[in-house]
Structures are given as C-alpha cells and as structure tokens.
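[RESIDUES AND BACKBONE]
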Amino acid sequence: MVSLTKIMLIGNLGSDPEMHFTPSGTPVTSFSIATNRVYTAPDGERKQETEWFRVTAWRKQAESCNQFLTKGQRVYVEGSLRTRTWEDRDGQRRTTLEVNADRVLFLDRQAVAPLPGEEAPVEAGEEEVGPEDLPF
C-alpha cells in the first residue's frame, strides 16, 4: 500500500536561517516559521493562535534559504514531517517534529539594489517618464 506524508505551510520566519554542513559536506539550513490562525470563539471574541514549525532544507535549497531569507520574511514551505529524537544535556530523551523541506518559495519581494555603475531595474508597468510624456 502506498502512503503519503505531506505538509504545506505559509508563514513568517521566526529567526534568521542557520546553515551548517554534514560530515560529508552537504549544506543543511534550519529555520523556524510561524503560522497564524484567526477564529471567532463561541463568546464572539476574535482569537489568534500561532503555531511554530522547525524547517530543514538541504543542498542547493539550503544555500538559497541561508543567502536570501531573513527573520520576518513570508515563505511557502512544502515537505514531509519527520520525527527527530535526541538526548539533551541533562540526559533526557527529547522528540520534536520537523518539516523536511522539498520546496521553499520566497513570497516577499526582495528589494533589488543596482550594482555600482548600473541603473536600477525598471519593474513591469513602471516605465520611465520623461518631461515630454507629461500631459501639461
């Protein structure tokens, strides 16, 4: 029987990504994202709940996440859930649920700064307007 574990999240980074390398040299980047759910309670009060997810990206995607993402940015993450177990400093066994990212999309627009000697790029629909283009 075939099975599937898939999660899709849209949220904001809770901290800057942290990149490290496995002993074999594979890049791994971890970051947390927060998702919000707004609902109305039975008494009519609007409430908001925040869920935090730990995300792990690998290889080229890890490098891109580390280079381009910063705290507060909005991202779409698609991947699978993984359970990770470890022993903490006190010898206690700990377990956490992580998202192993298959796909990370950067949803916030990046400010594009021109390189020295270059003109700033013109966005689609933002053509330069000269004096001869003004109607008065």
